[in-house]
Amino acid sequence: MYKRVLLKLSGEVLSGEGKKGIDYKMGEIIVDEIYQALQTNVKLGIVIGAGNLFRGEELSYVGSINADQIGMLGTVINSIYLLSALKKRGIGAVVLSKIIDLPSVETLTYDAIERAFEENKVVIFAGGTSNPLFTTDTAAALRAAEMNADLLVKGTKVDGVYSKDPKKYIDASRFERLTFEEAINLNLTVMDTAAFALCKSHSIPIIVMDFFTRGNFLKVLKGEQIGTLIFNK
Ligand code: UDP
To answer: Average pLDDT of 68-73?
Structure first.
C-alpha cells in the first residue's frame, strides 16, 4: 500500500477536454475520487495544472516569460477552487505556494507539508515550480520528491501511455509498463522529460491512468494494475 502519493491533474479535468473554465460537475467527480482514495489513509499531495484557463504557449504573444507567470497564477485559481470543493465535502485540505500571498494560501515549507499530513489534510501545491519555463508535470515531480512520495499518479482522460495518439491511430498500442529510459527515449508527450528525469533520479514510479473511470484512483492506491507504470529498472 502506498503511504505518500502525489496526484497530478491537468487543468482540463476541471473543464472537460478542449473546453475552458471550471465545470462544477467535474469538480464533484474529482472530489468523489479523492474522498474514496483517502479511505486508504494515504498522505495525498495534489498538483493541478491550468490548461482550462490558459497555457503559456497560448498567450506567448505577451512574451513567453510573462505568459508562463500568467499560467502559474492559473494553477493558483484551480488550487483554491479544489480547496473549496474538498472542504465542502468535509475533507481537510490546505493550499501551499511560494508565489502568492492570499488569505487561503499558506507559504510552502517542508514543516507546513508535514504539519498538514499530521492533521490528515490533503496538500495542494499551487503555483507550479514557482518559475517560468517549466510545466506543472515538472512541478508534480518536484513536489513528489519534496514530500517524499512513493508514487506519482498522473490522472488523465486516457487509460495509460500509448505508442501513438490513440485518437488518431487505430494501431496505437498501450504500454502496461515502461522504464524511465524507455519513456524518455520514446519521446513520449504524456509528460515532459524533466519530470521523467526527476522521478527517475529519486526513484519515484509514475502511474498514468484514466482518472474518470470511477474508482480507478482507489484501485491504483490499492496496488491493482491500472494504466501504465513507469519505473526504475
Ligand atoms: N507554468 C510555469 N511554470 C511552472 C508550471 C506551470 O511557467 O512551474 C505555466 C506554463 O505556462 C504552463 C501553465 O503554467 O503552460 C499551465 O501549466 P500546464 O500547461 O502544465 O497545465 P496543464 O496542462 O497540466 O493543465
So the answer is: 95
* Atom of ligand 1 minimally distant from the CA of 133: 7
Q: What separation in Å is there between the alpha carbon of 39 and the centre of ligand 1?
A: 30
Other residues' Cβ atoms within 10 Å of the Cβ of residue 126: 33
CA dist., res. 9 & res. 204, Å (int): 17
For residue 169, what are the CA distances in angstroms to 156, 183, 184, 189, 201? Answer: 19, 19, 21, 15, 33
- Separation of CA 73 from chain center: 16
Question: How many angstroms separate the alpha carbon of residue 57 from the centre of ligand 1?
Answer: 9
pTM over 0.90: yes
Domain of 193? 4-231
> What total number of domains does the chain contain?
1
